Amino acid sequence: MKRLASSVSAVIAVCIGGSLWAAEPANYPAPRAPEKIYAQTCGYCHGVNVGPVIRGRELPPEVTKAFVRMGPNAMPAFRETEISNEELDALATWLQQSEADPKERGQ
Predict the structure, then answer these.
(1) What is the CATH number of the domain that holds 87?
(2) How many separate domains does the chain show?
(3) φ/ψ (deg, to 5) at 87
């Protein structure tokens, strides 16, 4: 019974944010700016007659995030290892607030 109580305590500690051991902090790279992600990843197709123009359309962030993760139609899906959730949140907000670029063309 004492062992069960110890296991339950451990699970509760983890669930409420406690820690049973000191973990080393993760060494993740700093998030990229949304403008950089767009230029390096999205702009490759969007705005150059491959995909639709997405800047200046006030797309809801939820739509952008779903499209990025699911990759509908000919668009590839991007995993969290390619665009982190933090980067995707910033990108989706940036796209919603962006102005159209008159140099971009699309379908």
Answers:
(1) 1.10.760.10
(2) 1
(3) -65, -40
